[in-house]
Design brief:
252 residues; elongated; 24% strand; alpha/beta; single chain
């Protein structure tokens, strides 16, 4: 593969996925990680992408949301383990908030039928909990985002103003140690910003592929996150950085 062809392939992959890690690009392009890092530096200088910790992020206009059925099967095993660990943090009588992520849906599926109040902007989460008689479910309402089967927009955001919860569980598109938590879609980012601000404890559910990624729209600084549940593939360096920020980390 010629250098120019590799550059085009890298930019295409970054634009298709929104973000990608150096290790993945190295495997896909069949060159060393050092070569990929040099390529990313040159492509960033040319304005074709933006470097992030451990990879690169698209500089295209706002990335569309990944359809729910795709997110459901992407890294499903890790998400299920993360969801099960998150459920273990819930106590009877808790008031909790679940976002519209596939990991939150896995939480809803494995949640025991105990006295709880669950606030959510996710249609899938609400439907999953509807069969559990002891769980009170409150849906935000708002504009339907068909790709994520969630409610977003001003009405959804305003509805959150009326509540305060014990624990908020949410996921994201990217986690960057300096630049914070981010989302690919501005409407989703805005409602997650609200969620972070209305909880006593903020718990981020993010598999290791999310780390080092800076997506389109900022959601929260790392200082606003109380706990992170992730998988065992997260590097020791990142684990140490999280603990330095006094964030409780659970790996599963």
């Amino acid at each position: 593969m010629l250098v120019a062809e590799r550059y085009d392939k890298i930019v295409q992959l970054v634009n298709e996925r929104g973000s990608i890690r150096v290790t993945e690009l190295s495997e896909l392009c069949q060159v060393t990680e050092e070569t990929i890092r040099r390529d990313l530096d040159r492509l960033e200088q040319a304005g074709r992408l933006r470097r992030s910790h451990g990879g690169a992020v698209s500089v295209k206009d706002q990335q569309p949301e990944i359809p729910y059925f795709e997110r459901e099967v992407t890294r499903a095993d890790e998400k299920k383990r993360i969801a099960e660990a998150a459920v273990r943090l819930i106590q009877p009588q808790d008031r909790i908030l679940l976002d519209a992520s596939s990991t939150a849906w896995y939480m809803a599926a494995s949640m025991p039928d105990i006295p709880l109040t669950v606030l959510t902007n996710s249609i899938k989460v609400a439907m999953e909990l509807s069969g559990k008689e002891r769980i009170e479910v409150i849906s935000t309402g708002g504009i339907l985002a068909a790709r994520s089967l969630s409610y977003v927009g001003p009405l959804a955001e305003r509805s959150l103003d009326a509540y305060h919860v014990d624990k908020a569980f949410f996921s994201c598109k990217g986690v960057h140690m300096e630049r914070g938590v981010s989302e690919s879609n501005e409407l989703q980012a805005r409602i997650k910003q609200k969620m972070v601000g209305m909880a006593e404890q903020v718990i981020l559910l993010a598999d290791s592929s999310k780390f080092g990624v800076q997506a389109f729209t900022h959601v929260a600084d790392m200082s606003e996150i109380d706990a992170v549940i992730t998988d065992t593939h997260l590097s020791g360096e990142l684990l140490a950085q999280l603990k330095e920020k006094q964030i409780t980390v659970t790996t599963v």
